[in-house]
Design the sequence.
């Protein structure tokens, strides 16, 4: 949020609504209504005095009504912009009463009751819809008593309760008596996966299973004394990277009991407010009443309330669930029914965080095609650099921040104190140091007193350091000679009741700030040239998508494919769900597009070596060498080979789902296997998935694939049985297809890993399958002409090994490449400039792979759309004369920034690649001789702070 | 200026003939052209100690005394450097400490009388030690090295302590191990921290006296120098008999049963054990007395031995590593498979020099004298 | 063993000890968490001083030892929760460094309660305040460090 708020190319318009929209892609006119905020964003410093003085207390929406807020408020603690807003429904200033408290308390006159808002007309090239979802209102299911019983919470409410800054400060208490509950029920699928009177939506809300499992672990962490957590569910949909492993870990928690079954009702004991949950455990058939202290409903996700209006304004269509409809013809989940308008995340259906992030980047890539590059900001002639040599002359500037600081700390005495600190040449105070006038004053005084170090005792460097640094830069003072002391957020705001102690603390803080400032050195931003071209490795669906997106943005792209043709696995598939597209057709269109484009395709080509770093990679292939600025890895995955599992090796008619796909593909849709239409086909799920022997993770694609194939067979009259452990139909429309399959009469039979189905044959071929039906507790004997094994996805070992070796991209325990961040960086890697798309980072379906291809392209384009990369100078550097080349730094850096370089005569020295270094300083803490200097956080600077904090104590 | 004159006089610096032998033999000068003992003396002579205070090279001298061995007029250069450092330290000057200064912080804390350490956890039940007795085994910094380096290098510093007690037990000595023994302060002495060193000397001597011991045995050459020569310098004659473990082993060799341990080894003379205490032959004789051990000599041995390249955890750099590599190469050239040293610090420095890329490794085994002897003990 | 009777504690006569605690906070999570406590005005004990580093992995054993040497009664190193590190695994490296620090501090005979490694996220102002209060309370009860040359009392 903060990154978006601070990005020079992003203007955040909150509290705003799109009211009119017209034009063509690349040339739209959007009319945006900015609702009145009643507080001027440019004047408000986020000090919070108005909130303090406001007399009106109302329930806080962010805390789901469990906390309180004032009528003037910040929506939540880390809101961007950090500006207050007046809720006029509750403000006393409406109508007859005049309160004016907030207006009077604001020193900067930011409050304006007469704010009428504004209407903006924006010229835009494209639109991305990312309006998310609403939470299902569980009170629509009266049998669960949500809204009636005190101790029935929604999962969203529990999230707030679990949050350390939430209404209970992270303590779990039940609402009725504020006691820590001993036993909690978690109830899944509330408002999801159902139809009828008390059902909500047909689809699976996808996020809730893992959310609830996570909450169980958190509950235990927050309240170790909790005795039992009972988890009611139908299918455990742990279908994302690392999710299955997480779920397996939760099984080891002794307090957590999983009960397969959806409770029929909850009743409340009117006196104790305890709850009784009525449920059948479908695995044992036992019906029971379970008494709990509290129940948490996993409420599903529904389409946003405002979707109708927004769809109308944008002229795009909604699907039957009121989500924005995705144009099926692209196969990817990013296109709406109108060109130039894209969608991502839960606006188009339910996605988890990492998929939403991938889609967001993908939508950005699509949108970029219609966005003309804005001209670079006018380069301001830099002021000549001030001479800062000689002994330190420190200037200390004390900010009052209205009464935020000065109301607590004795600024006068601090001023006097600061004047006495050695090397301090000048001290000044100001009402609002960050205001234009405060900054001007600071600049004047720096010049007037020839200050060569500046300390501001004000708010937090995390928000305001850039502002001050820029002011220093404007007058030619190197911005890294500025140091900030946080006497507001971390002193006056949190030690309000003890002003004298807080002032003493501020003295220490200022003194240590000056101590650090003495040792500050000027640092200079460097820039390195970028080769404006990209390499995409892998010509499957993800790779082709990435290449096409990059090419559409005008980039030079090399697409390398090991095999003799493009298309990857897609070409072998029949039809792609949910839109029932022809896979071959989709692949053909993409291949043709690539052929018609300027993408340089190199099939039958392998990579020999890659050296260099972001912006400057040297690539050596079997087909020639070239330079690129960025790399997208889209080498896909392999399908698991079952071996002797379920007699796959022995019986000809035991095949994998991939082989069935080939058969269906070859027969052009006729259900004809070796000249015969089979009568009975049995699918077995989770072969080579969810097993600690083969692959502990869930392969995710196989359940929807099985459903697709099962429907296909069933529609041709085949008897189909699917043997599964949990049906994980989590993709778009997958749950609906699952329902359709049941409706068609496909039989679904659950088995457990302890008791696998047995394939029984006559020596040459499988004839039938024995499986234990759990509810009936009977062995079922199912005839099978064909047994189809849903084989999981495994990493392509040879390719992954080789690429890991060449690019140093780390791999996770599952063998797939590891993302930069499991949730927030799904297509990035720890190697700067190297991105991932598709199954190379774990199993994905076609739509997800396409979205990731576009996402990786957007990330790659962000690098190579510039001809240089600017490097932040607060990195680590090596003093070569001190370096013993012990290699500690090389081994420990996750960004591979340090490396040992030969200097001749067998002498080696570590060097840190400034383009790769992120400046964390961890290598400096490891370096035995102090050869590595963490710039701006040097040993000298930190030691001098320690010295003054502890030795010069008053 | 007066203080400076005093230092020059005391250390015979005025006698300097400007012959340059010191610089020609100095290991640091070989790897750092900017460093010259002769020039430092000249700077002191012409500009006074003031000029050296701000010079980082002041902290580079290994005080290994190799130059003093060669000096025709017996200028005590190491001692002169030390005296200038006393002045420099008082002026707030300090070198570039290794490991962020962690060891210096520990040494400085040792001067606090209130410190109550936990440093005897390594004593297992099979080791016989006492609370009071005639002989103290002075362990030195091994428990700290264990925490700081035990995980990084493939060696356990505390095994030296364990093996020392094993050897002592074998010859019938049940030593006292002091729970609150402090760092001997050797490095602080050489870094010019006079007051802290005197404080540490007093605390340690008190501790030893309380145990009733009159004899101190140590397996660390620096502890030996500190106890034997430096403590009397700051705290007067203490009447203690201080011995390095190799002396004890030699004296009691006839009572020891050592088994056959075939090995080709070469011996590194630690500067403090050799040039400071003139203990050259005891470790050699006892090593060679282990059945099967054959001892080979490096060209630079005994008085002419090269130092391990770093002292006082100060100003360690690329040059130090080159000194260490040269020494390891020399050891390997003897054909020995193991370089045996009698100083834990030598071992740490040599092992550190073997870190890094493969091209950076000499590839010779490194062992402590005590571990070699103890491994040959037979019941 | 000789038994000694301790003189009874004179509670009333003794003034309350005020600890002096040094806190190393990483820029991205813990320092931000401390800011978050500020934004939410969550009041907590003032008896600590923060030094900001970019990552908790930057904090060497030497920094902690130095603080203790100079008489700090306790040192807190605070970083991001596992999985949240801005630099991916910096906090894991902080653990590795802190294990060394712990070994050294233990050998020095200082109470291990005097040093702590904790995780506070940018959103956990409440957790930050609780942590500080609890730590200050703990060190107040523990009393001044033996290396503190001039302990402060109320």
Sequence:
């Amino acid at each position: 949020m903060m990154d978006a708020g601070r990005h020079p190319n992003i203007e955040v318009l909150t509290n705003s609504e799109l009211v009119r929209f017209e034009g063509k892609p690349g040339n739209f006119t959007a009319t945006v209504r900015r609702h009145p905020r009643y507080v001027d964003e440019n004047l408000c410093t986020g000090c919070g005095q108005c909130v303090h003085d406001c007399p009106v207390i109302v329930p806080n929406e962010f805390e789901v009504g469990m906390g309180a807020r004032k009528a003037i408020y910040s929506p939540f603690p880390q809101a961007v912009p950090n500006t207050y807003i007046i809720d006029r429904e509750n403000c006393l200033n409406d109508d007859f009463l005049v309160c004016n408290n907030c207006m009077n308390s604001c020193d900067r006159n930011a409050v304006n009751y007469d704010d009428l808002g504004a209407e903006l007309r924006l010229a835009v090239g494209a639109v991305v819809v990312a309006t998310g979802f609403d939470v299902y209102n569980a009170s629509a299911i009266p049998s669960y008593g949500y809204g009636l019983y005190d101790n029935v919470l929604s999962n969203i409410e529990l999230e707030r309760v679990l949050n350390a800054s939430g209404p209970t400060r992270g303590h779990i208490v039940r609402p009725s008596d504020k006691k820590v509950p001993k036993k909690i029920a978690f109830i899944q699928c509330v408002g999801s996966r159902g139809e009828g009177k008390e059902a909500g939506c047909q689809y699976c809300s996808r996020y809730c299973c893992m959310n609830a499992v996570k909450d169980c672990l958190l509950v235990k962490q927050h309240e170790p004394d909790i005795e039992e957590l009972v988890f009611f569910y139908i299918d455990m949909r742990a279908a994302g990277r690392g999710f299955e492993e997480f779920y397996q870990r939760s099984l080891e928690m002794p307090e957590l009991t999983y009960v397969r079954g959806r409770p029929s009702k909850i009743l409340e004991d009117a006196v104790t407010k305890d709850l009784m949950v009525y449920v059948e455990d479908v695995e044992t058939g036992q019906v029971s009443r379970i008494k709990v202290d509290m129940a948490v409903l996993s409420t599903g996700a529904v389409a946003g309330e405002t979707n109708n209006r927004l769809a109308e304004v944008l002229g795009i269509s909604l699907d039957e669930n009121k989500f924005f409809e995705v144009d099926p013809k692209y196969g990817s989940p990013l296109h709406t029914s109108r060109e130039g308008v894209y969608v991502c995340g839960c606006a188009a259906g339910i996605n988890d965080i990492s998929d939403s992030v991938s889609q967001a980047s993908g939508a950005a890539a699509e949108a970029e095609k219609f966005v003309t590059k804005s001209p670079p900001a006018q380069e301001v002639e830099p002021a000549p650099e001030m001479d800062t040599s000689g002994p330190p002359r420190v200037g200390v500037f004390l900010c009052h921040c209205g009464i935020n600081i000065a109301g607590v700390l004795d600024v006068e005495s601090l001023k006097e104190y600061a004047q006495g600190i050695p090397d301090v040449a000048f001290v000044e105070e100001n009402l609002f140091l960050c205001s234009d006038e405060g900054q001007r004053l600071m600049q004047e005084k720096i010049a007037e007193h020839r200050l060569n170090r500046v300390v501001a005792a004000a708010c937090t460097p995390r928000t305001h350091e850039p502002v001050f640094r820029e002011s220093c830069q404007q007058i030619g003072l190197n911005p890294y000679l500025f140091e900030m002391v946080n006497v507001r957020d971390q002193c006056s705001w949190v030690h309000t009741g003890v002003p004298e102690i807080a002032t003493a603390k501020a003295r220490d803080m200022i003194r240590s700030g000056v101590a650090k400032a003495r040792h500050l050195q000027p640092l200079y931003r460097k820039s390195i040239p970028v080769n404006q071209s990209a390499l995409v490795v892998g010509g499957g669906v993800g790779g082709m998508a990435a290449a096409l997106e990059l090419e559409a943005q005008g980039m030079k792209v090399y697409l390398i494919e090991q095999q003799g043709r493009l298309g990857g696995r897609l070409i072998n598939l029949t039809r792609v769900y949910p839109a029932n597209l022809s896979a071959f057709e989709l692949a053909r269109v993409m291949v043709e597009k690539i052929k018609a484009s300027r993408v340089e395709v190199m099939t039958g080509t392998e990579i020999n070596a890659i050296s260099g770093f972001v912006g400057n990679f040297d690539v050596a292939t079997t087909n020639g060498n070239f330079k690129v600025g960025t790399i997208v890895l889209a080498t896909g995955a392999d399908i698991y080979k079952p071996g002797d599992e379920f007699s796959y090796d022995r019986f000809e008619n035991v095949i994998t789902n991939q082989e069935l796909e080939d058969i269906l593909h070859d027969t052009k849709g006729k259900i004809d296997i070796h000249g015969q239409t089979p009568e009975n086909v049995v699918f077995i799920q989770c072969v080579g998935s969810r097993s600690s022997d083969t692959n502990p993770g869930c392969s995710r694609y196989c359940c929807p694939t099985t459903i697709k194939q099962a429907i296909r067979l069933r529609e041709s009259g085949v008897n189909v049985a699917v043997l599964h452990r949990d049906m994980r139909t989590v993709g778009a429309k997958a749950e609906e297809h699952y329902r359709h399959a049941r409706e068609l009469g496909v039989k679904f039979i659950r088995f457990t890993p302890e008791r696998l189905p047995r394939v029984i044959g006559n020596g040459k071929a499988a004839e039938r399958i024995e499986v234990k039906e759990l509810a009936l507790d009977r062995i079922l004997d199912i005839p099978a002409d064909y047994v189809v094994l849903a084989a999981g996805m495994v990493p392509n070992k040879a390719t992954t090994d080789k690429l890991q070796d060449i690019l140093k991209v780390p791999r996770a325990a599952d063998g797939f490449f590891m993302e930069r961040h499991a949730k927030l960086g799904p297509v990035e890697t720890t190697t700067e400039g190297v991105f991932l798309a598709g199954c190379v980072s774990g199993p994905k379906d076609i739509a997800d792979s396409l979205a990731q291809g576009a996402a990786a392209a957007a990330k790659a384009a962000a690098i190579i759309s510039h001809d240089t990369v600017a490097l932040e100078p607060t990195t680590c550097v090596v003093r070569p004369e001190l370096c013993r080349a012990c290699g500690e730094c090389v081994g420990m850096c996750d960004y591979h920034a340090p490396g040992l370089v030969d200097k001749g005569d067998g002498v080696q020295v570590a060097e840190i690649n400034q383009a790769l270094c992120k400046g964390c300083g961890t290598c400096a803490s490891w370096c035995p001789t102090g050869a590595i200097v963490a710039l701006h956080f040097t040993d000298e600077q930190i030691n001098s702070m320690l010295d003054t904090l502890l030795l010069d104590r008053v | 200026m007066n203080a400076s004159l005093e230092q020059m006089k005391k250390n015979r610096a005025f006698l300097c003939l400007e012959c340059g032998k010191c610089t020609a033999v100095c290991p640091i000068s070989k790897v750092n052209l900017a460093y010259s003992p002769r020039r430092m003396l000249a700077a002191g002579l012409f500009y006074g100690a003031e000029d050296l205070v701000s010079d980082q090279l002041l902290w580079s001298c290994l005080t290994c005394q190799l130059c003093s061995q060669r000096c025709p007029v017996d200028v005590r250069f190491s001692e002169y450097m030390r005296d200038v450092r006393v002045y420099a330290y008082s002026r707030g000057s300090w070198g570039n400490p290794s490991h962020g200064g962690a060891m210096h912080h520990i040494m400085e804390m040792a001067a606090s009388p209130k410190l109550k350490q936990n440093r005897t956890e390594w004593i297992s039940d099979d080791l016989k030690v006492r609370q009071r007795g005639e002989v103290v085994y002075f362990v030195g910094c091994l428990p700290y090295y264990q925490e700081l380096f035990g995980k990084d290098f493939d060696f356990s510093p505390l095994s030296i302590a364990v093996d020392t007690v094993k050897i002592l037990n074998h010859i019938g000595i049940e030593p006292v191990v002091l729970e609150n023994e402090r760092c001997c302060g050797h490095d602080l002495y050489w870094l010019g921290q006079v007051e802290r060193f005197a404080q540490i000397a007093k605390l340690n001597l008190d501790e030893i006296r309380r145990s009733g011991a009159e004899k101190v045995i140590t397996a660390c050459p620096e502890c030996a120098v500190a106890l034997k020569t430096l403590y009397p310098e700051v705290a007067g004659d203490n009447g203690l008999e201080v011995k390095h473990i190799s002396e004890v082993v030699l004296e009691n060799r006839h009572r020891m049963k050592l088994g056959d341990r075939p090995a080709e080894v070469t011996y590194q003379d630690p500067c403090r054990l050799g040039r400071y205490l003139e203990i050259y032959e005891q470790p050699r004789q006892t090593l060679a007395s282990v059945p099967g051990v054959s001892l080979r000599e490096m060209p630079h041995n005994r008085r002419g031995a090269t130092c391990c390249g770093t002292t006082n955890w100060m100003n360690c750099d690329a040059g130090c590593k080159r000194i260490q590599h040269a020494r390891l190469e020399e050891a390997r050239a003897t054909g020995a498979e193991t370089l045996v040293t009698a100083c834990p610090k030598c071992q740490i420095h040599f092992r550190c020099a073997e870190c890094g890329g493969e091209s950076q490794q000499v590839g010779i085994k490194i062992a402590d004298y005590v571990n070699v002897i103890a491994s040959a003990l037979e019941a | 063993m000789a038994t000694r009777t301790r003189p009874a504690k004179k509670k009333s006569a003794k003034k309350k000890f005020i600890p002096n605690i040094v806190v190393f906070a990483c820029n991205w999570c813990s320092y931000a968490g401390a800011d978050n406590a500020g934004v939410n005005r969550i009041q907590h004990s003032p008896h600590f001083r923060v030094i900001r580093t970019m990552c908790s992995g930057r904090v060497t054993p030497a920094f902690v030892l130095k603080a203790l040497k100079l008489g700090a009664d306790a040192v807190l190193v605070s970083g991001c929760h596992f999985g949240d590190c801005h630099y991916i695994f910096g906090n894991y490296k902080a653990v590795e460094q802190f294990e060394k620090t712990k070994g050294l501090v233990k050998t020095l005979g200082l109470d291990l309660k005097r040093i702590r490694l904790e995780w506070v996220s940018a959103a956990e102002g409440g957790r930050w305040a609780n942590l500080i209060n609890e730590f200050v309370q703990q060190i107040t009860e523990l009393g001044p460090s033996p290396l503190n040359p001039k302990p402060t009392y109320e």
Summary: The helical segments of chain C are 30-39, 61-69, 90-107, 125-142. Chain C touches chain A through 54 residues (CB under 8 Å).
